[in-house]
Amino acid sequence: MEIKLRCEQTKDYRETEAVTREAFWNHYAPGCFEHYLVHVMRDSPAFLPGLAFVALDGDKIIGNVMCVKSIIQGDDGKACEVLTLGPISVLPEYQKKGIGGRMLRQVRAKACKMGYRAILLYGDPDYYTKQGFVPAENYNIRTADNMYAAALQVCELRVHALEGVQGRFIEDTVYDISETKAEAFDRQFPFKEKCSGTPSQQKFEKIVRMRRKAD
After folding, report:
1. Average pLDDT estimate for 62-78
2. From which residue to which does any coiled coil extend (predicted)?
3. End-to-end Cα spacing for the chain
């Protein structure tokens, strides 16, 4: 199996959304909204098409990753521009083959060349710490509501890129999606059964609760 990576193209959009839906369906919650997020993200001024990649097995898209600009609102009053990564998706039958890691490395290399300091995301620490990320708390970077969160992870794109930077991580508003619009968008795709109480959902709920007030 030879997997290739390239930038997402306009003709890929619907297939990429379908891949994202398959990857996230029932993973974090019954059903998913991530494919709608991919759909609307491309219209955001913060979206970076040069950092949107797809993974292909032949002509079939089997994975994708996207990024937008965000900021760390510094405790010193200064805003530091960084990247938010996600969604990142791999079809279930292709998972645990290193494809997600390859896409992450591609994003990091390209983002570094573009001059960005760091990538932040909310995700499973068990996975992202294996991909070069560390807890944002290590840098005294908190959530927008000034909490330390286990899910908030950061990856510097060059040594000491975040030296002297600490504050609150502020995601772009594109992540504040409308659940009503997301549900309507999902009806454009073939019906899939929603399930609750899955092991991945239970783990996600546990990680979400791993928050504490900043000192």
Report:
1. 98
2. none
3. 49
Give the closest residue to 132 by CA, choosing from 94, 170, 103: 103
At residue 35, the 3 state secondary structure works out as helix
Look at the domain 3-209 and name its fold: Aminopeptidase (3.40.630)
How confident is the model over 112-155, as pLDDT tens digits? 999 999 999 999 999 999 999 999 999 999 999 999 999 999 99
Is the Cα dihedral 32, 35, 36, 37 positive or negative? Answer: positive
Q: Return the DSSP state at 24.
A: H
What is the domain partition of the chain in residue ranges? 3-209
C-alpha dihedral (14, 17, 22, 24), degrees to nearest 10: -170
The two three-digit tokens of residue 207, written as one number = 């990680």
C-alpha angle 118-147-21 in degrees, rounded to nearest 5 = 65
